[in-house]
Amino acid sequence: MAAVVCALAAAAQAGAREDYQRGLSSFKALLANEKRAALRDEWLGTAAFFEKSLGGDARGESAPKCMYFLGRCHEELGKRSFLKADRQNALAAFDRMLKAFPRHSWADDSLYRKGLIMLEQAGDTDAARKIFQDVIDHYPKGDMAPEARKHLETLGGKSGKKDTVQAGKKASAKSARSGGTPARLNGIRHWSGQEYTRVVLDLDREVAYERTLEEQGGNKELRISLPGTTVAADVMRARNVGDGTLAQIRVGEGGGRTLVTVDLLRAGNYRVFALPDPYRVVIDVYADSGAGESGPDAAGTDHVRDTLEELQREQKSAPAREETAAKGSQKGGKRGGAADARASKSGQPALVPSAKQKKYSGSLMEQLGLKVRTVMIDAGHGGKDPGAIANGVREKDVNLRMARIMGNMLQAQGFKVLYTRTTDKFIPLEERTALANAKGADLFISIHCNAYKDPRIHGLEVYYLNLATDAQAVRVAARENGVSAKKISDMQFILSDLMLNSKINESRQMAALVEKEVMRGVGPRYKISSHGSKGAFFYVLTGARMPSVLVELGYLTNPKEAAHLDSDEYLTAMARGLVNGIMAYKKKLERYSG
Question: Where in the sequence does UniProt note compositional bias of the Basic and acidic residues kind (predicted)?
């Protein structure tokens, strides 16, 4: 009997070691693949290996390491989800390890990781400072003591709340390889409204920036530190804003870095991200708690969590073959994409409220449904940027003509219409949504035309901001963003932040309705095809606070479609479909609120 027990115990220990090794391999693979790391299920699946190992042998040789990596899985997940629950799960796993194995050689690592979580995810510098001091006091000879000491030196005796995030580590390596030549801050631009301000820092290259929120005596300063950066001579060192959100923007140099300080007024929410080619750091500041990062738990709602998880499941299961679009286009008049599957069931995409949405439907509809009165139309490209040119037609001209036709129709329906441009003028992509946010638009519609090397390809496409789920979406986004397809794939990880604060569900619903109504009105008459509505990473939609879509009217590289798009009669028919889609979206929201 004793032999059987020993054999079973040995088998359990062997299984626990095997599960630990599987979990470790999966963890390392996720850290090396940011696209997979953006998926919640990947981290939970990896954590399950460590949980299973602990279930087989909770006191064995691999147990403390399993507890540590269990914490690391939830820590990495928390970095991407911004959910309080993920952060708490990580802290609980590290506490479990410290309680069960306080003298293990990895105990100081677990304690140190707790400090990092409190500093970087919770933004609680007092708690982080205490934990880092505990690392030094309890594990003075551990390898984490020097790291903890560095953090204490940085935190020092500063009072108030501090929230620091580092970005652009690749930029540091690039700067080192460039021989130490400093980067340059070439300019600062901003657009303001009573409830929102966007500030853009224009740099001549990628920079490893750091953001810090300082709060002292009720006053807040958002500081953007740009290491190894100088300031161009014509950049204003101080500018008063006074728009209700910001008081002032200040620029200073010293210690081999440039510091941009944004003095906040009643703003409690902000978001900072970078866009490439040309490289710029974008700062969105909000006057209310409706968007941005109002605190470490800003994203922690059922609706947001469900949205993110649903989008991640979509990315994981979506097809990734560009050839599918080519085959569908050549048949002519045939609709395609996910929009068909949804529309075929009920005639319109389902808009199903969650329990929390029902509870707050009144306030939500004031923000999203009953207040659909102002539409901003963005005529893509313009000025020095002609967009696609093929078959004697320039995209920027078609976009502007369509914007005017569509705007007149919307005004006739009682909407207030705003435009990003009404002339042949160049407007940077980040300025377009900034204008929509600052002017309080309720919907944002960006108008474009497509192009491709194969002249047989044709058809309508409607996009909303999301992770690109197929090669065609990546290609279209890359062309409109003015970057390579590889750059789009490399950058999609920042959407784990942006997705949580954008109207993705609403934008997806509107995209499907717009695509359906255009095809209903134009498809039978002109025999056009559609590639459906889908998500992709478009800079022009990034940071929009309202439901937003980008419409690719058709392919200028297809001779027949180019001729259509050069015709006011055809544009009028398409505009009518777009307006009908907006009306259908508005009516659906009104029914939802009732």
Answer: 310-325
